[in-house]
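Q: How would the C-alpha cells look for this protein?
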Amino acid sequence: MSNLLGFGTIGLVDALPEELRAALFAAGTPVTYQDGETIHHRGDATPGLSLVRKGLVRMGNYTIDGDYIVTVDLGPGDCFGEFTLFAGVPRTHHAQAMGVAVVDQITKDAFDRVIASNTGFRQSLLAVVTTRLYASLEFIEEMRSLPLDARVAKMLLRACPRNADKAQINLTQDQLAGALGVTRVSVNKCLKVFEQEDLVERRYGKIIVPDVGALTDWVTTRVQIEQLPLPQL
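A: Here is the predicted structure in C-alpha cell form.
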C-alpha cells in the first residue's frame, strides 16, 4: 500500500505465499488501462476483486464542483473491491490509472473458487482487510482528537519507510491537504513551522524528513492518548 491514506499497510500479494500468489493471478484477467483512464466509478455495484499488477491506481472522488479529492494511490500488490464481495455494497471511490497500469480483474465466481480451494488465501485476505480497518480507526480517532499540526506530522510519518532514519516523501502540499481534508494554506502553515524547527525540508513536489526520530518525538509529546504501533502482518 502506498503512503497517505494507505496507512503503511501491506498489500495482498505481499501477504501471500508464492503458491497462493500464483492461484490469485491465475484467477484474474489482466486489463491494461491508459493514463487517466477510469477503472470504475463511485457507486459501481459490480462485485469483483481488482489487483494492481503494474503501475499506479489513484482512488478518490469528485466533488459537486468537479474537483478531484485524492484518497490513496495503490501500487503493485495492492487490491481493492473486497467490500463488494463480502458485503455486497457498491464502490465508494472513483478509480483511475496513473500512467499505464495493469490490473487483474477477478470476478466474484473466480474469487469464490479461489477462496473455496485455498484456506490460506482466506486467512491472508482477512488479515489485510483487518489491518486496514485497524489503521483506519486510528486515523478517525486522530481526526477527532488531535490538532492539525500533529495530524500533519503523523501523516508524514506514515509515509516514511519503516525503520528509516531519514525519508524523502514524494507528495505535494495539495495532496497532503486533500488526504487530511483541509486547505493547502493550513498545511503550508504547519510545514513552515516544522521547517523552522528543522523537522522537515520543503522541496518542489516532495517533503524531506531529515530525522524521522525527531519528528516522532515531536508527535509523542503532543498526543494525549496512548500511541499504538502501525499494523503489521
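The beta strands are 29-33, 38-40, 48-62, 68-74, 79-80, 94-107, 167-169, 201-203, 206-209.

The radius of gyration is 19 Å.

Upvote if useful.
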